[in-house]
Hints:
The chain is mainly α. It has one domain (2-137). 72% of the residues lie in helices and 0% in strands. It is built from 7 helices and no strands. Helix 1 (2-19) runs antiparallel to helix 4, helix 4 (63-99) runs antiparallel to helix 5 (105-136) and helix 6 runs antiparallel to helix 7 (160-171).
Amino acid sequence: MKSASRAVRHAAVLIVVAASPLAAQATPLLPKVPQGATDQLLEENVFPPELVMQHQQKINLSPAARGKIREAMTALQTKVIDIQWNLQDEAQKLVEALQRPSVNEAETLAQVDRVLSVEREVKHAQMAMLIRIKNALTAEQQAMLRELRKAAGKSDASSPDQLEEMKKLSARGGRRPPQ
């Protein structure tokens, strides 16, 4: 009986944690863009720190911009650590409520709302970081990152032809010539 109870408890914890944006994140330093219907719009308009770090030389990232991006990442990391503690506490309360033989629906749903509220804080902090990263980049750097991201989906983004195209695109202010 204890084994079955323990299995149920572990399953409940896994469900709560798997639903958490923190579960999808390898480290608080490298968050993922929030999932949902707006994925494509977000992907086209914000730049995760991994992408910027990977291509910092290709986009000629200035030391000042690099500093602003590091600052944004550090702020997120600090905030997410605090939020993660709160999320674990709220998730544990939810698991405890679900473990009871008879679950108080109103009380449990209120706890679900508290868990979701903490998850919203994580997404909010992630978006704040992504906005700060974008604001640290020039329009030309943003255009180059979009092209590098697009090229990486098709092939190796570091080929000489692709880099030449990036330079031409940058010289045109991120605009393609009329077709």
